[in-house]
Amino acid sequence: MADGNITFFLEKLGNFAVQEASLFGEVEGQVRLLRNEMEWMRLVLEDADIDTKCNHDKRLKLWVNQIRGVAYDAEDVIDEFMFKIEHQRQRRPNRFLPTCVRFADKLPFIHELDGRIRDINITIEKILANKARYNIESGSPSAAGSSSSTEGVVQREKRVPIVEEADVVGMTREAEAVKQMLVEEESESRVVAIVGMGGLGKTTLAKKVYNRSEVNDHFECRALVYVSQDCRIRELLMGIMTNLSPERKTEISNMVEKQLGEEVGSYLKDKRYLIVLDDVWSIQVWHELSLHLPESNKSRVLITTRNQQIALDAYAKLYELRPLGEKESWELFLKKTFPIGSTSPGVCPAELEDLGKKITEKCKGLPLAIVVSGGLLSRKEKTKSSWEKILKSMEWHLSQGPSHAWEFLL
């Protein structure tokens, strides 16, 4: 996770806190606590000199790596939970919300979420306490205003988050193709769209392209924002403007929609910019937002969406994301089932290989399904009987039809 993408994760976490966690009582408090703690972590990691300081202080380097590691774990948990919620929505599109409110106690993953977020919050408390305990100096929080909040790629040193860019195999070719669509001078298309069904890794691909040095060098400024299903234009404009001018975050948060639109338009005027809109559900969002985005200097907007019609209505140049092949699926499965830190990272015991490949095959090349399955197996006993139970559960649920396909993960 690039440190700048913690800001993106906080937006997603904020939307999650409002839209999902509020349905489940006690979980909401834990999510809001997590969000507050992540805000403090972002301030530390956005210190422009943090990496230089780490080179001169081993204690600080260890502490910063612990912060980054727990941030990955937090995103992993939230993404996995959102995947499960989306599955429930697809099964009961008209009855999901009241069902969850009334019978949340009957959904086992609700209790699991609460427990896992509590564990993460406890870990964060310990990490922050270590700063004072070992007299670790990280610098002034005022550095949060640095432009580094939208730049820089940091190598992962802990378990990778769900479908994180460093974790997905076979995306180098895709990232290069999308990058070319963004930077090619002769293109008349203002909008580029990554299109594909849920679970294919559209967000991961968009972030991978966004963080490439060639893209950073080509555009004068960039912003990446998460678009929720019930997104308001004011929230979207505020997210973009905060990306562009993080030092003005407090001032920006107090602006009304009209002011924000004027600020965004004024800032982007005569600049070559890139705006990434992740998970667009409605063409109306694009129509309203585009009024505030100047058409100049070969600027680009990159959107990710499940709905190809949205991309067509935006006159976008399409990149259709396909499922992973057999080889890439297996490599991803190994990374998640036997992560760094395990006894034999990336290596499947011979007696489990046949079962592992059958489980991977059931995921149909969907990175998210492979990652969630692998994450589940990483916490189970590495025995044939344990894996056979998982495979049988998958086969039974798949036999019940598409709406039950991933219920074994819940």
Automatic annotation (TrEMBL):
Span of domain Disease resistance N-terminal: 6-92
Species name: Vitis vinifera
Lineage: Eukaryota, Viridiplantae, Streptophyta, Embryophyta, Tracheophyta
Gene3D superfamilies on file: 1.20.5.4130, Helical domain of apoptotic protease-activating factors, P-loop containing nucleotide triphosphate hydrolases
CDD domains per UniProt: RX-CC_like (cd14798)
GO BP annotations, alphabetical order: defense response
Residue ranges of domain NB-ARC in the record: 174-339
Domain of life: Eukaryota
Pfam family, one: Rx_N
Keywords assigned: ATP-binding, Nucleotide-binding, Plant defense, Repeat
One MF annotation (Gene Ontology) recorded for this entry: ATP binding
This protein's name: Putative disease resistance protein
